[in-house]
Structure formats: structure tokens, C-alpha cells
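Deliverable D2.4 — example input (C-alpha cells):
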């Protein structure tokens, strides 16, 4: 296979632990990648500013793909490009999410809007991304025009999965709908998905897709698996996600990212064994 020159990594459940910790082993793995000429890029359903805390420890020097590719930002968080939802698609997504009894969040390039600060996962998300949401009584037309991502939230994981399927059918090519966590359903611009992230980074960095590796744990990561030359599923991924990857590593609680770099990426970077 082709030599790997870029690794695109999901964040939650992949690069960081369940407690959102970037381990010393993960930092060392990022250093090993740089040492051996492999670039590292990150992509997440998080907004770019929600990945700020990873930029320096990982020494990231290229585009960061927030909102599953809805916004590409430089390491200083200045926006390179963004893709907003069509207002009618955003409106329909919010309506269907609520009809399923789920909470709805709305993200713009700069803000996170919610209707209830006490709703499930709000406090946890604020702790994770290190900034607070703005509470509004309702999402206005002005908010919907600037929506980069709509999120449906519920601790009923089966409900989230059913809503995902129904939104995919209802929205068709007008938007991308995919779970970023078992309790989060992300709705973004149709070209704001992790497959498009790989294609965009390939163009930006002039690296052919066959020389790009990807690593993730959720169904929305399968889209980037399909666009890369080599793909790795985390040990905490579902069997369905694992079946669509080239290889599997251990879980995010068992240093799966660092192990994948050592055992699967560095040997494909033109090296004999790992480092």
C-alpha cells in the first residue's frame, strides 16, 4: 500500500479518553508522527474553539475541521471556510428532533445556542468544550440562517438512532445527519461530513487520499474511512464500524490512539516497525 503521510483523527472516543483527557502516550504518539514525517489533523463534531485545548499539546499546524467539516479553522482559530445549513433544512431538523422528544441545540460559527441550561448533556458539553452556551427562548430565523450544525440530544440511544434514519430520509441531499455519539445526532451541511474532511485536507495539503489514514469510533467516522487509503476503528467502536475499517486498535481507555500510531501508522510511514 501507499506510504502514509497524513493521519486524520476523530477526537472524542478516539484521541481523548471518556473523561476527555489527552494522555501523555497520545501526546508522545503525536510527536512520533511529526518525527517521522506524518502530519496529524483532527476533526470532530465539536466547534473549532472546543478543540482549542488540543492545539498546543499536539503541535497542530494545519487546518482544524470543526462541526464535522462545517468549519475549517487555522490553529489560531481564524476561519478558513464554513458551510451553513440551508435555513429550511435547519428548520426541518429542529422540528423533527423535537417531535421525537429530543432536545435541540444550534451552533453558528461563533455561538452555541440552547433553550434549557438544565437539559441533558449541556453541563457536560460546556465542560468538554470549555465555553458556555447562550440560552434563548426559541431559535429565530436569524439563528437558522447562520446554523452550521443542529444537534439532537437524548439518552435514549435507540431513539437517537431512529431519528437519524428518519432525518436522513427526510432531508435527503439537503443535509448530512449522523450520530457523533450514541446520544448526539449531528445535522450539518451535506458537504460537512468527515468524508468531505478527508477530501478537503487532501486538496489543501496536496496529499493523495491513498496516502491518508483515518481513525475513529462512531458511525460518522465511517464516511472518512471510505475516503482514505487506510482506516482504523477504535476498540470501543461498534462491530458495524469495525467491519468497515482496515484495522482495529484498542479502546480510548486503553491507549488505542497511541497503539494505532505505533503499530499501524509508523510501519506504513516507510519505517521498520514502530517508534
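Example output (designed residues):
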Amino acid at each position: 500500500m501507499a506510504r502514509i503521510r497524513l493521519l486524520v483523527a476523530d477526537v472524542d472516543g478516539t484521541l481523548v479518553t471518556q473523561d476527555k483527557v489527552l494522555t501523555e502516550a497520545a501526546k508522545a504518539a503525536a510527536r512520533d508522527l511529526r518525527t517521522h514525517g506524518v502530519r496529524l489533523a483532527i476533526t470532530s463534531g465539536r466547534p473549532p474553539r472546543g478543540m482549542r485545548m488540543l492545539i498546543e499539546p499536539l503541535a497542530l499546524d494545519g487546518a482544524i475541521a470543526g462541526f464535522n467539516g462545517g468549519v475549517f479553522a487555522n490553529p489560531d482559530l481564524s476561519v478558513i471556510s464554513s458551510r451553513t445549513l440551508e435555513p429550511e433544512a435547519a428548520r426541518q431538523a429542529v422540528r423533527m428532533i423535537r417531535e421525537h422528544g429530543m432536545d435541540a441545540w444550534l451552533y453558528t460559527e461563533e455561538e452555541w445556542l440552547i433553550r434549557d441550561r438544565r437539559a441533558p448533556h449541556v453541563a457536560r458539553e460546556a465542560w468538554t468544550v470549555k465555553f458556555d452556551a447562550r440560552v434563548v427562548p426559541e431559535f429565530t430565523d436569524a439563528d437558522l440562517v447562520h446554523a452550521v450544525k443542529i444537534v439532537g440530544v437524548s439518552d435514549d440511544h435507540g431513539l437517537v438512532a431512529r431519528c437519524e434514519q428518519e432525518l436522513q430520509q427526510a432531508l435527503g441531499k439537503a443535509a448530512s445527519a449522523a450520530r457523533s455519539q450514541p446520544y448526539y445526532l449531528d445535522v450539518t451541511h451535506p458537504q460537512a461530513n468527515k468524508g468531505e474532511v478527508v477530501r478537503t485536507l487532501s486538496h489543501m495539503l496536496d496529499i493523495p487520499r491513498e496516502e491518508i489514514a483515518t481513525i475513529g469510533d462512531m458511525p460518522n467516522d465511517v464516511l472518512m474511512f471510505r475516503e482514505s487509503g487506510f482506516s482504523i476503528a477504535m476498540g470501543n467502536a461498534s462491530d458495524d464500524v469495525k467491519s468497515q475499517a482496515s484495522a482495529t486498535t484498542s479502546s480510548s481507555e486503553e491507549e488505542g490512539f497511541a497503539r494505532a500510531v505505533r503499530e499501524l501508522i509508523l510501519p506504513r510511514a516507510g519505517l521498520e516497525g514502530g517508534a
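The chain is about 35% helix and 20% strand.
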